[in-house]
Amino acid sequence: MSDFPAASGAPTPGTPITPSTATSDYTRRLARLEQAGIKRLLPTQAPYRWNLQRLHLGRVLDIGCGLGRNLLNCGPGSVGVDHNPHSVGTCRERGLNAYTPDGLAGAPDCGPGSFDSLLLAHVLEHVDEETAASLLEQYLPLVKPRGSVVMITPQEVGYRSDATHIRWVGFEELRGHAARAGIAVGRTYSFPLPRPMGKVFPYNEFVLVGRVAA
Fold first, then answer.
1. Is residue 125 part of a domain?
2. Quick one: which of 202, 86, 87, 183 has its CA closest to 135?
3. CA 158 to centroid of chain Cα atoms
C-alpha cells in the first residue's frame, strides 16, 4: 500500500478522472509549467525524449496526452487522447493528432489492433485504482498483440507537487496494474536518476515497460 494518503476530494470508484484536470484552467496551468523556471533556458525534456525514443514504440496511443509533451516524441501516426477538450485543442494547434475519448471512438485508423504501443504517462496518479483498471481495459484492445505498454508515474517530490494527484503509484502498484490487465512486465526502472533521488528531484519517474498478451 502507499505511504502517501490520497488527496482530499478523491473520486469514488468509477469516476472517470479527477474533475479539475478537465478544465481550461488546468490546460493553462500545464502551458505555464512548460515554460517555468529553468525550462525556458535549457532543453530539460531531452532525457525524457530520449527515454521514449530508445524504446522504439512505433505508432503510439498516448492516453492522457495533455498538451502533447510526450506525443511530440512518439513515432509517425501516433495519436493522443485526453478527457480535457481544451488540452486536445492545444495538441491540435501544435499539429498533433489528438481526440477526446468520444472522438477517438469514431476516429479513422484507431480501431482494434491499430497501434504498436500504449503509453500511460503521468495519468495513473490522477485516478483511483478501479478507474485506472478501466482505462487499461478500454484502450489495450487498440494495441496489437505483443505490442508494448509503457506506464510512467512520479516519485515522491513530483507526487507531492500537484494537488490533482490522488494516489501513490510506485513500482508495486504499477506491477499490480500490469498483472490485472494481463500485461507481461519486461522491466521496471527509475528515470532519469537512481530511485533515491525521487525524494529530492521532482522529475524522477517510475517506469514500467511490458507487452500485451499475444
1. yes
2. 183
3. 14
For residue 37, tell me if it sits in a domain.
yes
* Three cell numbers written together for 56: 522504439
* Per-residue pLDDT tens digits for 136-166: 999 999 999 999 999 999 999 999 998 899 9
Overall pTM surpassing 0.70 (yes/no): yes
Angle of helix 24-34 relative to helix 85-93, nearest 10 degrees?
Answer: 40
Number of folded domains in the chain? 1
* 12 in any annotated domain: no
- What are residue 191's DSSP bridge partners? 205
Q: Which ranges in the chain belong to alpha helices (H)? A: 24-34, 46-53, 85-93, 101-105, 129-139, 156-160, 171-181
Q: State the Cα–Cα distance between residues 134 and 212, nearest whole angstrom.
A: 16
Pairing between strand 205-211 and 143-154?
Answer: antiparallel
- Which of 124, 71, 74, 120 is closest to 93 using CA atoms? 71
Residue 2 CB neighbours (<10 A): 12
Helix axes 129-139, 171-181, angle to 10 degrees: 50
Q: Which domain, by its residues, includes 161? A: 19-105+113-211
Place of cell 476530494: 9
Helix and strand numbers (H, E) in the chain are: 7, 7
Q: Is 191's pLDDT higher than 70?
A: yes
CATH number at residue 37: 3.40.50.150
Among 81, 51, 97, CA closest to 209: 51
pLDDT tens readout for residues 65-88: 999 999 999 999 999 999 999 999
Query: In this structure, is residue 188 part of a structural domain?
Result: yes
